[in-house]
Amino acid sequence: MHLRDLTRDRHFRHGASDMLAFGPGLAAWGLVTGVAMTQSGLGVGLSILMSLTVYAGSAQLASLPLLASGAPMWVIWASAFCVNLRFVIFSSQWRVHLGHLPRRRRLVLGYLLADLNLVVFQKAWPDRAAHQTGQARYAAGGAAAVWTVWQVSSLAGILLSSLVPLSWGLGFAGTLSMLGIAYALLTDRVAWVAAVVSAAAAVAAFALPLKLNILVAIAAAVAASLVMAKADHRAERGA
Amino acid sequence: MTMASFVWPAWAHGAITIVGLAAAIVAVLAPEIFMTHGALIGTWRDGRLPAAVAATAFYAWRPGVLGPLLAGLAVYMPLHVGFGW
Question: A50, A117, A152, A223: which has the highest count of C-beta atoms within 10 A?
Answer without folding.
Answer: A117
